[in-house]
Amino acid sequence: MHGIDQRGWGRSISHPRDRGNTGPTERVLADMAAFISSHLDDNPDKLPVFVMGHSMGGGQVLTFASHPKYQENVVRRVRGWLLESPFIGFSPEEKPSALKVMAGRLAGKLLPKQQMRHAILPENLSRDPEVVQSIKDDELMHNTGTLEGLAGLLDRTDALATGRVRPKGGAVKSLWLGHGTQDKTTWFEASKKYFEECCGEIPDKEFKAYEGWYHQLHADGEVSEEFHKDVGDWILKRCEEPVQEGASVNGGKADAKL
User: Fold this and answer.
1) How do residues 173-187 score in pLDDT, each as one tens digit?
2) CA–CA distance, 218 with 152 (Å, rounded to integer)
3) Which DSSP letter does residue 240 get?
4) Is the distance from CB of 84 to CB of 52 less than 8 angstroms?
5) Which of 51, 131, 135, 163 has the most beta carbons within 10 angstroms of its beta carbon?
């Protein structure tokens, strides 16, 4: 399994001014293409490659898988796409006011690299007290973005939420989406609506609702073992079986991760 520190996050930061400086959406998608392509190309055994994205990364993965520019060279070569609590819509607890969004967009045009901090309560991410404390203690989780990055995030989310951006079945073979019903960061209902209305062209798809779970399905206490098994079983099945046209289920370990 391979993971990526997105530009502006994790250990990609060499100076505090780099925090949250992801660049515009074009840069974000180009970084993803370079990361995914490197694992598709450096694959002498032709193993199936899966891409998984969580939260903001989930929205980015979905945007990338739907982008016309990358369909032939990258998307078609990926065996399956997994979305964990993807950012398709703000939860009611996190949704910014229309005035704040408008002011942020205007300021972003004038000062694109201006940093802005948006704190997300660790208690809203997981029900596990140890995980919550680890988030509070993690210096890499800085909750800082740039106005340019925020504008790009809002644009991508709006495009997904309104259905203007959706995956094409000819390129996307298989898709799995899991979301907790009590997620207080990204919105379960937005994910469910998107799956039902915008994923009809995908021949093999599955939606899993985790009743009562919070945002970090992979770290929501002892129950997370169920999530780990679901992901692993889904991936392993698609390593063994060919794509079945029209397969759809409502309700691993990925080679690449966001």
Assistant:
1) 999 999 999 999 999
2) 26
3) H
4) yes
5) 51
DSSP secondary structure code for residue 11 in this structure = G
Residues 6+ apart with CB under 8 A from 56: 87, 153
Q: What is the pLDDT of residue 257?
A: 53
Partner residues linked to 82 by β-bridges: 52, 176
248 pLDDT band (50/70/90 cuts)?
A: very low
Report the C-alpha gap between 255 and 102 in whole angstroms: 38
Question: Edge-to-edge strands of the sheet including 50-54?
Answer: 247-249, 204-210, 174-180, 80-84, 50-54, 256-257
Give residues with Cβ within 8 angstroms of 196, minimum separation 6: 207
State pLDDT tens for residues 137-159.
Answer: 998 888 888 888 888 998 999 99
Chain-centre distance of CA 63, in angstroms? Answer: 9
CA distance 182 to 211: 7
